[in-house]
Automatic annotation (TrEMBL):
Record field: compositional bias (Basic and acidic residues): 141-159
InterPro entries: CHP02284, DUF2383, Ferritin-like, Ferritin-like_SF, UCP029477
Pfam families to which the protein is assigned, alphabetical: DUF2383
Name of this protein: PA2169 family four-helix-bundle protein
Annotated region (Disordered), positions in chain: 138-159
Span of domain DUF2383: 15-124
Alphabetized SUPFAM superfamilies for the sequence: Ferritin-like
Database matches in Gene3D superfamilies: 1.20.1260.10
Signal peptide range in chain numbering: none
Highest taxon of source: Bacteria
Amino acid sequence: MANHMNTADTATTEDVVEVLNDLLENSRDGEYGFRACAEEVDSPQLKQVFQSRSAECAKGAAELVQLIQRFGGSPDKGGTVTGAMHRGWVHVKGSVGANSALSMLEECERGEDAAVARYRKALKADLPADVRAVIQQQAEGAKRNHDQIKRLRDEMRSK
């Protein structure tokens, strides 16, 4: 595959790999976080929503791994420390009986707020058009995830 990084107005290959690895960590945080919520929540409806979101994040991570490798980079392993702390908090809530659907949705919304912000930051980077297109598509997915979780949270609060 041709390297599209030779133009003077685009970021270096290392810059592109760095942006992609940041989003890869973000995607893995989402995958693991949604899976943790699915394991803790009692509601079959929410369990399905969380499992579906986890699968979507895993799919996004796989796309990012392919791009990172295409640019000659090494995909980072795992997620972020913040993501691990978030998942730990979800499990703590579950173990002390605070795993209400509302608390799980609130935790997921916090995670999705962070994801949307990371995608916004990535889209400000000077990236090749094909990479930008993948990131834009994933950013829209993160926004849909956020909006769905927020809507479910709002419904839960009004009950």
